[in-house]
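Quiz preparation item.
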């Protein structure tokens, strides 16, 4: 090897070693700054009389998971063009819907077994995680790389799920955890039923309505009977005697003329 080439080779070797160190140092620094994985559980406050909540074994509620879900829910970063967050349509002050729209409210979803107006997500394996994944991947078309490159999100996902790389699965899981905390169980009606000193009581008309609702007279309780006011099933309540396909909800149920009259 000539004398001129040798120093040059040494230089190259040194440089590549330096580059190697520099890159690893940067990687390590990033990891080191992440908060530790913290799966501290969060206990849902289930209102009295509610059935057990549906919580899949692979996504138990944790404090960090719910906090992350709340942050994501309000962040337009999830939208492909950065225009919308979940809360642009699902407004908290209106039960997480927009009044007068077809946007479904997010209330007591921890007890839902089928989702969307047409109940299209009603298969046996469907849960809130499944629907959230649909919202993230298909509806918002989230560009996950934006979260991966974000200043704070990688650390928050590590803290909540112990993952080094964010995928749409963890995004959906965090959102599902947050949505499970959106519980309505302390309305005036609930307080009245709970009873006790200082709680409100029914007015005369309310009591009348209550009786109608929960007896054969009004006959509402057969379908709206439990504390959730829904039994999670679809019924033909006779809104359309003849289905003509103009009602999105009915039409999308199955397309079968008989089923499609049911809601
Ligand atoms: C542009 C408005 C809009 C945005 C933004 C939006 N949604 Fe929705 N959401 C809707 C509408 C409309 C429906 C009902 C759709 C249907 O039935 O076909 C719905 C339905 C749902 C449902 C089903 C509720 C049920 O009871 O069946 C869930 C869960 C949901 N959205 C979650 C989300 C999440 C999570 C985000 C953010 C990642 C989000 N949505 C963003 C409009 C929106
Ligand atoms: C056979 C079952 C059944 C009976 C009985 C029944 N409902 Fe319903 N109810 C439904 C279904 C199914 C829907 C959903 C319809 C839809 O969204 O298209 C509904 C929707 C409603 C809604 C609208 C809820 C919302 O979020 O928009 C109200 C209010 C309501 N019912 C009140 C009553 C009252 C009051 C009675 C008794 C007089 C009654 N229902 C009896 C099945 C029933």
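Solution:
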């Amino acid at each position: 090897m000539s004398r001129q080439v040798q120093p040059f080779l040494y230089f190259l070797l040194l440089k590549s070693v330096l580059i190697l160190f520099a890159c690893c140092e940067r990687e390590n620094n990033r990891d080191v700054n992440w908060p530790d994985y913290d799966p501290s559980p969060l206990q849902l406050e289930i209102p009295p009389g509610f059935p057990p909540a549906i919580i899949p074994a692979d996504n138990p509620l944790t404090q960090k998971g719910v906090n992350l879900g709340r942050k994501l829910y309000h962040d337009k970063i999830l939208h492909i063009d950065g225009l919308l967050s979940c809360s642009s349509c699902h407004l908290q002050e209106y039960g997480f819907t927009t009044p007068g729209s077809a946007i479904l409210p997010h209330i007591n979803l921890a007890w839902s077994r089928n989702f969307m107006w047409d109940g299209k997500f009603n298969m046996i394996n469907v849960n809130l995680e499944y629907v959230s994944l649909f919202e993230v991947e298909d509806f918002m078309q989230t560009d996950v790389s934006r979260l991966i490159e974000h200043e704070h999100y990688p650390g928050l996902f590590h803290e909540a799920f112990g993952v080094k790389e964010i995928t749409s699965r963890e995004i959906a899981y965090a959102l599902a955890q947050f949505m499970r905390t959106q519980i309505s169980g302390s309305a005036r009606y609930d307080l009245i039923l709970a009873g006790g000193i200082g709680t409100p009581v029914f007015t005369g008309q309310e009591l009348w309505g209550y009786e109608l609702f929960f007896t054969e007279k009004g006959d509402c309780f057969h379908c709206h009977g439990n504390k959730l006011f829904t039994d999670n099933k679809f019924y033909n309540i006779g809104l359309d005697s003849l289905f003509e396909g103009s009602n999105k909800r009915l039409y999308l149920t199955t397309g079968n003329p008989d089923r499609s009259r049911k809601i």
